[in-house]
Amino acid sequence: MSKPVIITCAPTGGIHTPTMSPHLPIRPEEIADASVEAARAGAAIIHLHARDPETGKPDPRPELFQRFMPRISAECDAVINVSTGGGLGMSREDRLRAATTTSPEMASLNVGSLNFGIFPMRRKYERWQHDWEPEFLESTRDLVFKNTFADLEYVVKELGGTHGTRFEFEAYDLGHLYNLAWLVDQGWVEPPFFVQLVFGVLGGVGADLDNLMHMHTIADKLFGDDYEWSVLAAGRHQMPFATQAAMLGGNLRVGLEDSLFIGPGELAASNADQVAKIRTIVESLGHTIATPAEARQRLGLKGAAHVGF
Fold this sequence. Notes:
Elements: E1 7-9, H1 28-41, E2 45-48, H2 62-75, E3 79-82, H3 92-102, E4 106-110, E5 114-115, H4 132-139, E6 144-145, H5 149-163, E7 166-171, H6 174-185, E8 193-199, H7 209-223, E9 227-233, H8 238-247, E10 251-254, E11 261-263, E12 266-267, H9 271-284, H10 292-299
Parallel strand pairs: 1-2, 1-10, 2-3, 3-4, 4-7, 7-8, 8-9, 9-10
Antiparallel strand pairs: 5-6, 11-12
């Protein structure tokens, strides 16, 4: 029997903008509600970003995270995972502020630089709720999402070494897996590793099942029994790739950060709806869903009693 499937839910992210869906959580109370509902639907891990409550723009201020993280922790036992990706165009220091302030059990870490192009989404909309939205999308035409070896070393030593935080290592391309292997070779991170294979972002590896199979094969060669792997795919590829990951014995991620839809042309009314849908699929395949306690044990986390919020 395969291990229970760890479901991660990313409720809001820093990619989609308020115009794109009325269901995208923006205000702290909305992010808290969405997170707790997703956890109750079966998500063991909640991957968090913050937004300006007035404009919906990605916002790195730790005080915003502190307005929803304690409530999530009080109302469910899900693992709280703080993004260090922040919003596109943020400095490394801004991207780390929330995690270094709150000392979470987990934080995300993109293990390589890439062109991160979301500018094609601008063509889909004529009217915008906020002036920053089209400018933000268009700015990614000339943007490198920077995660150099110096950045990676700094983050794993600061968060991993000082805070005991473990990582959701996000790999957008094959070379990113080798970047992670280099970090392992330096002795800066220790197993078990949680590797999130990311597909369908313009600038990263395409959402092709052959790519999933190849990246999974290479990750197996690099990390052997020392890692847990998970899959997320952008947009319409979200559910098919999540399903494929479960069928292969892996874990998966859903949430409105990655896709605003629940089906073709149908906006998801909530993050919990996406979690419930993939849970139904996974259980119909004969798999079970991991509890937060199981996720903590398998990922070697420090526990909710040792965080700073």
